[in-house]
Amino acid sequence: MADAKVIPFDDDRSRGGAAQRPPRRRGGAGSRPPGVQPAAVGEVQPLPGVAPAREGTPGTRGEEPPRQPPQGPPPRPADDGTGGLERRVASGLAFLRRRLTGDYEVDDFGYDEELTDQVLMSLLRPVYEKYFRVEVKGVENIPAEGGALIVANHSGTLPLDGLMMQVAVHDHHPAGRHLRLLAADLVFVLPVVNELARKLGHTLACAEDAERLLGQGELVGVMPEGFKGIGKPFSERYKLQRFGRGGFVSTALRRGVPIVPCSIVGAEEIYPMIGNAKTLARLLGFPYFPLTPTFPWLGPLGAVPLPTKWTIQFGEAIPTDGYPPEAAEDPMLMFNLTDQVREQIQHTLYKLLVQRRSVFF
Amino acid sequence: MLVTGVARQLGGRFVRRIQRDPEVDRVVAVDAVPPEHHLGGADFVQADIRQPTIARVLAESGADTVVHLDVTGTPLGSGGRATLKETNVIGTMQLLGACQKSPNVKRLVVKSSTNVYGSAPRDPAVFTETTPPKSLPSGGFAKDTVEVEGYVRGFARRRPDVAVCVLRFANILGPAADSPLAAYFSLPVLPTVFGYDPRLQFVHEDDVIEVLRIGSHEPRRGTLNSGTFNIAGDGVLLLSQCSRRLGRPTVPLLLPAVTWAGSLVRTLGMTDFSPEQIRLLTHGRVVATDQMRETLGFTPRYTTAETFGDFVRSRGPGLLPPEALARAVDRIAALPLPGSGHPPAQSAD
């Protein structure tokens, strides 16, 4: 359930990466190879020396000198490049204008779709693509429309797995769906983190919010292991912890939405937690304070996660609409379903672990 | 019909409006101080609802509907927080006592506030009428409303024949609003809490008057106007959006500094900026309005954003008017491309 979005550890890398990655899949004309955008070519003067446009979020980083040429489309003739550049600059300015004048919409949960798509996702994507090299399987198991509850294992000391799962769904699902994660209350207590979490569309892991989101037909992601999963010692890696009290099952039953089990391999090894400074954790009000081979001994450098290779596998959906309405109140059924989901995730985890060649490749 | 709290803008507007309704024969307007605005053809009775005289006023008027608007967060004229609390809580008790004794009263409408939910990071993102607050408001106006609602519930139990309608209004804004939040938005520079961007909801004054009318008349066919209802405009604005639309820059301060500054300002008596107000501006609050739509049968005319837009127009431009910023961006867009390094945007948050 816990997930905080912590971007600090590789800020500059993600920026560098953002400069070179092609714009997001659904980003429109910007990413098309030159032949597709013949418009605006005529009136634009060729500017040979002009810097190639940075893609993604021109509005926020437009002033920086570009560091790398875009690598997606091959180097193109200057006039074509400027056509794309002009369009990107224009859309960047329009974005900037909307942001500066406050002319954008957020939903009841504080989810800022525009900011997520244009800025936050482009910050996370380099981590996802270049650092953890996430491989996604079974994304077609997520329904193209209507509510669904994605249940995943939780690990890694810091809830990066939730964020990566969000990018995975966002970038790979054919219907371009957005994942709304349920996060621990600690996330909403911390300054800055809570603000970013709300804007990324996360909300508090409670039955009310989950039901409301599912009722709106949203895709909701939950990690029922919570702090028990994310803060477990390295020796217990890939051993699923108790799935809370199964509240996620009754929520799904009440809304009649399918449960999609999701197994994430690779997140366990990013911060091998060999110890837990409990006194310090209590002092700071955190559920645990991790001690890894590098943290806190190397200071901030020790907080850089290990570049493991990840696999995210979405399993076959478990339908819940066949049960009568009172099923949500049936504890036996709830436990059975919880176990079924848990077993399925655990099995997939073992299968993926057997297939894995190495932790890092 | 008997209306309390008419010396305020909202009460005055409601009294003037309600007299135009054919169902209303006579309006008795009550407040402790004479209003500065006119009340149309209503009979003004100067009575303090904290005193038992209100029972006599009610009995003499023979009113069948009581609209209790004297539950407010800002003191009128002089009188500090203590008087206000007395009016809110003791006044409500006296008024309810009077209503209980009066056989004529058939309908009671009470103005409450979504403040009753408090604001805490551990609350669900959207409050419904039945959500129990995780942390009860510890003081100030929010605590008053919690207590007022408690007394109203007790009254509803003792007089099941009276239709009781409790309207929990989100932050009321409009050209004439005099709430603490309106005062806050009138500051030239808005102090905010660093690292938090609260979600806010507003309801327009016009909608407030409308929904009070619905509550105080017989329910229309297919609707029910007794019970507790959240009243808020559609949609949500973040505080950062509000400040940009207002054109007033924000100064993010650390939470302890804000709390400290708030208590300092209170001690100096400059403004009644209460802790619960600071909590609202830290964690925000959003309520569900399904009950208002489906049961009460009311659809607000203004969304949250439109309400705020109306408020902005009434306040005049701030230091950084959005139009000027938009023009600046447009000018940059009109520049020839080679030099088009546009300014850094702090807009990413």
From TrEMBL, chain A:
Q: Where is the composition biased (Pro residues)?
A: 67-76
Q: Looking at the record, which segments are called Disordered?
A: 1-85
Q: Which GO terms describe its molecular function?
A: acyltransferase activity
| UniProt domain Phospholipid/glycerol acyltransferase: residue ranges | 148-267
Stored InterPro entries: Plipid/glycerol_acylTrfase
| Coiled-coil segments on the chain, per record | none
Per UniProt, which keywords does this protein have?
Acyltransferase, Transferase
Q: Which PANTHER family match?
A: MONOACYLGLYCEROL_DIACYLGLYCEROL O-ACYLTRANSFERASE, TRANSMEMBRANE PROTEIN 68
Annotated protein name in UniProt: 1-acyl-sn-glycerol-3-phosphate acyltransferase
